[in-house]
Amino acid sequence: MSQECLLKDVIHSPRLERLLDFLRCSPTPWHAARTMARRLEDAGYRRLEETQAWSLTPGDRFYVTRNDSSIIAVNLPTAPLETLRMVGAHTDSPCLRLKTNAAKTSAGWLQLGVQVYGGALLAPWFDRDLGIAGRVHVRHADGRLEGVLINVAAPVAIIPSLAIHLDREANEGRAMNAQTQMAPVFLQHGDVGDFHRLLLEWLEAQHGLTDVSVLDFELGFHDLQPPSVVGAGQELVASARLDNLLSCFIGLEAMLEADGSQGVVLVANDHEEVGSASACGAQGPFLADVLKRINSQVGEAGDEGYIRLIQSSRMISCDNAHALHPNFKDKHDAEHGPEINAGPVIKVNANQRYATNSATAAMFRDICEESGVPVQTFITRADMACGSTIGPITATEVGVPTLDVGVPQWAMHSIRETAGTKDIEYLIRALTSFFNRAELS
């Protein structure tokens, strides 16, 4: 087959098109959870509310959200509930969030002050076309309060770099100050009231809201360059927020492809990038609350039954891994440098920054072997610090045996990240086999 035909096949892959569409539609955690919810509803899952009584039966398929930014989807088996196959991911990504009183003026420009969310690589944010998206809470004329999502997918702001002529040492490496150097320019000759006026206009244009007052908001900037397939052989996908929307997408695809014979849970938490310590984060009670309600209705009720269910279950925490960078090979341990498009990565750390142990890793290796999926291992250099994931936090809070895996990627925490197109299929295949697997041990 010619290279031209190969490129055409990749470009028109339905799965890849779904991924690109998901990334385009998910500029914030709230949008990501909503997009996932819509796909679940299209597949027959019903929405449950945490504030209402639940009535669950074997074979039920449902989802629930918390804070509108975290989501849990569940497929119950028709047989008695004895184990659950769980996959975890997170909906948030490092970004620039607007301050509450964001509007300020300087040198004839209205600018919007920002705070850095998570451990963002700041340099790539300069000279990008930026839109604004997030959640806004309003009060209607009748006093009713409502939260709505907005997505201004137009280039309304930019953070201009300082010219090399005015900073001859710019390429020598220097610290960037988010307080003084990264406020995006928004409107020439504008005043502080113009942002509020435009926010009301966006609410009217996107939701038809005309007689409301804005009480508060959680808004951030996002890059308007669309996700794309990159490389002469179309080997790569490049986009904002691959960490960790790629894992959310992969987990959802696997769940919807599973045969439904086993109990399956997909959890996508918010706030991983800032430590997970929130009501909807992995360190909060969201997952445990849902699991307890499930067990009380379709499992072996009581503390004894719940503990037996958790210890008979397994969790795969999915969060992208650091791929071997061709320009910085020395940043990896020589024996543990995952390659892009060479399969999912088991992440290991002796100090439990990852939750993997030999038992959970062996299970995943066995799944990959049965599925014909190549598998790799990442261990950081002994002289470098290691990041973490929701894996150790979920294992600590819930007690479920857990391992950490992920698709290898470059430029983690940049405004634009890169991963391999083949690895997406590899991990979906492995997780689908995990969801269908009759025996977990």
TrEMBL record:
GO MF term list: aminopeptidase activity; metallopeptidase activity; zinc ion binding
GO terms (BP aspect): proteolysis
Pfam families for this protein: Peptidase_M18
Transmembrane segments: none
Gene3D superfamilies, per the entry: Aminopeptidase i, Domain 2, Zn peptidases
Cofactors named for this entry: Zn(2+)
Homology family: Belongs to the peptidase M18 family.
Name of this chain's protein: M18 family aminopeptidase
Organism: Halomonas binhaiensis
